[in-house]
Amino acid sequence: MRLLLAFIGLTTVLWAKPVVIPAFVDLKNKKDPVNGKRASMGQTALWRGLQIRFATAENARAFEKTPGKFLGKLGLAFLNPKKPDALKLGNALCPVTGKKPAKSVRWGGLVIGVHDAAAAAKFSKNPGAGFAKLGYAYHPALVDLKNTVCPVTEGECYVEAPIWADVKGVRVRVCCDRCVKEVTDDPTTWLKRMGVDPKKIRRELGLSVKD
Known about the structure:
Mean pLDDT: 89
Strand content: 15-25%
Order of helices and strands: HEEEEHEEEEHHEEEEHHH
Distance between the termini: 36 Å
Structural class: alpha/beta
Radius of gyration: 19 Å
Number of helices: 7
Helix content: 25-40%
Number of strands: 12
Number of domains: 2
Shape: globular
Strand order of the largest sheet: 1-10-12-11
């Protein structure tokens, strides 16, 4: 009965408030830029199209309040501190050619160093490959299911400091890091238990099922 109630409640929330998250880049940082401790794969925050990992929700809030203090820990800097609308990535080598950057290409608010105009064009055409060379993970637009019940434990998901796993073009909220791994390792099982067809919900929200 408990499982059935959790399932019904979860499904109701899922289909009531799905939200589209624009394309973003996961920096995959292993250390929290605020205090240098091990970052959690489940404790992340989206900031200017970048997904940054933290050790705690408090550190995520501290970063968002004064990002300029911590950007250097992520290999980033404001392109113009007086007008902080763009970020510069201090990559030493072009992600396309492997050579020293002489030009730059812009993805959203992020400026990446590339070798030449041809490399810039290739990066723009396939940002996923370019970001992978830099050690990051590019994620096309996905759907946040906004579920409040963890599909693994049936426990309540944190609202103020959400933890999630991004699988098959959707974001599944969970209650802890262990459940992040469970959902990531076997997304089909957990999505089926939630009654979610990721391709169907993406189509309904106007997103490509190939993303």
